[in-house]
Amino acid sequence: MPMSSNLTGDDKVYDSLLHQAETILFQRLARYLVLDKDIFGEPGWDILLCAFIAHRKGVACTSEGVASTIGLGLATTKRWINLLVERKMLTSQNGIFTIADETEQKISRMFQAQINEIRKSASIELRRHMEATRRQS
Fold first, then answer.
1. Surface-to-core class of residue 82, CB atoms within 10 Å of its CB (0-12 exposed, 13-18 middle, 19+ buried)
2. Predicted TM-score (pTM) of this structure
3. 96 with 41: CB under 8 angstroms?
4. What does the alpha-carbon distance between residue 93 and residue 72 come to, in Å, rounded to a whole number?
5. CA distances for 99 relative to 8, 10, 41, 63, 115, angstroms
6. Is the pLDDT of residue 112 over 80?
7. Which H or E run includes 96?
8. Tens digit of pLDDT for each residue in 49-87?
9. Is 61 exposed, middle or buried, given 0-12, 13-18 or 19+ CB atoms closer than 10 A?
């Protein structure tokens, strides 16, 4: 079960790792509108992102759903899923697959490091802005 990062005011759980994964997937899908995904695509990573997102949301992940989401043919999607299952990055049963625990933990650590870096950069920029504002006063 995914862990929440913090709570919003309306008691809904905000999951910063889910948000990070969705942001990355949406950026990738937008890139495919501009650049040829046959050259710049990474189906394995896109599938892992979909599996990570489904896990964090607590919903099932199917080959058909992922193929539709990432705009990849079903046969190609299934080949990639099978490869990821062979590499123990996904588990699969009865047409539904999930991200393997170890893979989920590694991706979570990577996303948390990205989030920490973004916060650090934002904090530095805020301090610079505050110092510049003080100097102008």
1. middle
2. 0.77
3. no
4. 21
5. 27, 30, 20, 13, 21
6. yes
7. strand 96-99
8. 999 999 999 999 999 999 999 999 999 999 999 999 999
9. buried
